[in-house]
Automatic annotation (TrEMBL):
Gene3D superfamilies: PCu(A)C copper chaperone (2.60.40.1890). SUPFAM superfamilies: DR1885-like metal-binding protein. It holds the Pfam family PCuAC. PROSITE patterns: PROKAR_LIPOPROTEIN. It comes from Sphingorhabdus arenilitoris. This is Copper chaperone PCu(A)C.
Length: 152
């Protein structure tokens, strides 16, 4: 009994000491209600042991993408968007790409991604890391893509 507790304690301590790993999760692509308009990709980046920058997000299922920052025009109060060249991700930090904040604008989401309801996305960082994540593809109202409804 004592041995089991000691072993469990040793394992949990080892878990705490693991260095954080740069990773991306909770990737969701929200399709534009108008097919000709860009869609938006949201996700969370978890920093590793060094400061890096997110440079680009690519996917075989899209034509192109841009990293954007949302804001508000101080004069008119209207929502605005400005492209970013990169996004710093400090070591051990968490950077969320979400509605009303940073996001990735995506053009030309192909039929395959819409039918599968998911697509592969690749996040390219300044340290050379390329992280692959399966993103969920959904309509703006959170439902599965219209093209998927036809095949399922
Ligand atoms: Cu945008």
């Amino acid at each position: 009994m004592k041995l089991a507790i000691a072993a469990a304690l040793a394992m949990s301590l080892a878990g705490c000491g693991d260095p954080p790993k740069l990773r991306v999760d909770e990737a969701v692509l929200v399709l534009s209600p108008v097919d000709s308009n860009p869609s938006a990709l949201y996700f969370t980046v978890h920093g590793g042991t060094e400061d890096v920058k997110l440079l680009r997000v690519v996917s075989p299922s899209i034509i192109r993408s841009e990293i954007h920052e949302s804001g508000k025009d101080p004069k008119t109060g209207a929502m605005t968007m400005a492209p970013l060249n990169n996004v710093p991700v400090a070591a051990r930090s968490k950077v969320e790409f979400k509605r009303g904040g940073k996001h990735v604008m995506v053009w030309g989401v192909n039929l395959r991604a819409r039918r599968l309801g998911e697509m592969e996305t690749e996040y390219i960082f300044s340290n050379g890391d390329r992280i692959l994540v399966d993103a969920v593809v959904q309509e703006a109202d959170g439902t599965i893509p219209d093209e998927r409804k036809k095949v399922t």
